[in-house]
Amino acid sequence: MSGQTARDRRSGNGNGRRRRLALVASKGTLDGAYPPLILAATAASLGWEVGIFFTFYGLDIIHRKKHKKLKVASLANPAMPVSVPNLVGALPGMTAAATAMMKGWMKRSNLPGIPQFLDMARESGVKLFACSTTMGVMGVRAKDLVEGADIAGATAFLDYAADADVSLFV
Amino acid sequence: MSEIDMLASPDTAKTGPSGAAVVALDCKGLLCPLPVYRASQAISRLEPGAVLRVECTDPGSLADFPAFARQRNLTLLSATERDGVQVFELRKVADA
After folding, report:
1. Which of B29, B39, B68 sits opposite A110 (nearest CB)?
2. Residue B73: its chain A contacts at CB < 8 A?
3. In this predicted model, which residue has the larger pLDDT, A43 or A13?
4. Beta-carbon count within 10 A of B14 CB
5. How many domains does chain A have?
6. What is the DSSP string of A130-163?
7. Do the domain assignments include residue A43?
8. Residue B27 catalytic?
9. Is A153 among the domain residues?
10. What pTM did the predictor assign?
């Protein structure tokens, strides 16, 4: 890569390489999908290498169909802006209502949706690791994943994360 | 503002007093990570020596842009705030 020397000075860790962020995304809700993607897009903007390990329900974030319809839990979610008793949160339509509310906030705040954030991440060179165990447990096939996802086990991710400067479990 | 607009490239270019190109980037109304994301894209397109002028309204930008400059090895020429709008001028000094 051209400019490697300048890049090393800029965001290296002193060992002559770029900084690296390794994230584990374990949640498959709409509110759970934003933080890892925001952190990934930001780190890539700083010139860092970024890899995200999508595991368990977090795999839905890179599921070809499911990533477009992630939802916010209305039941047992004490963080809702309007206090919703669990009995009410369990009613049909409440999950859709909570999801629509969050999508409304995002739109009003000019924040892109999850598909757009995924595009930003891929265009920025973010590595998307799809947890192979989760795929086996949940019956997810390679063709069910968004383009650019790499199937990997925990070993491959830990090998990547071993050289990370920042590692976070989200 | 549509999602296309949010990710659009800066379109205003002029020449600053020092003769270096100054590219303006309007990030008003955008929240983190979009100002830094768009600034990063704009910086990548600039020639060394050129200046990027970013206008933001996300209050987090006051902390974020000095950090962005450190991480990307840019010179933060100025950081000012007036009427709720923060303005940052960043010079590309290397292959950032």
Report:
1. B29
2. 6, 9-11
3. A43
4. 9
5. 1
6. EEHHHHHHHT--GGGBPTTEEEE-HHHHHHHHTT
7. yes
8. no
9. yes
10. 0.87
